[in-house]
Amino acid sequence: ELNSIFSKGKPAANRVKNEIKELVSKRVNLGNRPPGLGVIIVGENPASQAYVRNKVRSCAEVGFKSLLIELPVHVPESMLLEHIYGLNLDNTIDGILVQQPLPTHINEFNITMAILPEKDVDGFHPVNVGKLSLGRLNDTHVSCTPLGIIELLSHYSIDISGKHAVIVGRSNIVGKPLASLLLQKKPFLNATVTMCHSNTKDISYFTKQADILIAAIGIPYFIKMPMIKRGSVIVDVGINRVDDALSNTGFKLVGDVDFGEVSREAFAITPVPGGVGLMTIAMLLRNTFNAYIKKL
Ligand code: GUN
């Protein structure tokens, strides 16, 4: 039996949050305004509402100002754009986030393009994606979940350099930016990266070779025990709602990994909930703080 460490997000996220809280209080004590995050949500998707509540609460915890703009599901794209232009011009707002997914009548790319790259704390703007790809990490914002994964591994002293990282999932929010990040020529990155996705043939052939396996495909229990290498590190990015008659909400959250069986063979595995999700929010705060410092 391997000595599994269960890599929870809470201690790592709290360390980041406390660090930011202290830095904010120093700036505010010097007479500066606090960092500000503008959050826009369109419609009433319960999962999105939960994420956004969490983001707004986390801002308060570290001393940020937050501005929540809630728009009805049928809001015209032009009106959503007007709100973004307003936040772009607002000198008390350092970061702007439009919660995804958006209703189908709104073009997500137009929305992403409208946010000033320096305020794009999600790291979705093509300028920021391009800079990540070019290795210019110091003057860009990187997508929060990939950053959170690196921070989590680093918190638990899990070495990435030279390791084979296999990413399952090719989204613009997680899979692709994570691959770019892991590939960076830096002492604590430097991974060898393989990308798999829903059309990969014989996915087990690849996942079994992973020293670090990142599951970000959005399918509950997708990664099962026979698919992993014994003693590997498993990062579960999935947040899937599955029916659960025993829960008073009628559902429970599960990851992309079949935790029960995989945890017996892995060296370390992140739980859902309480794993990567907490790190994502911590990195949103860090990106917003970095934008604030650049502007101060
Ligand atoms: N939806 C799921 N993840 C994210 C994220 O990181 N940012 C935004 N804006 N929407 C999301």
From TrEMBL:
Q: Name the protein family.
A: Belongs to the lyase 1 family. Adenylosuccinate lyase subfamily.
Task: Recite the lineage of the species.
Answer: Eukaryota, Metazoa, Spiralia, Lophotrochozoa, Mollusca
Task: Specify the domain of life of the species encoding this protein.
Answer: Eukaryota
- Which organism is the protein's source? Potamilus streckersoni
Q: How does it assemble?
A: Homodimer.
Protein name, per record: Adenylosuccinate lyase
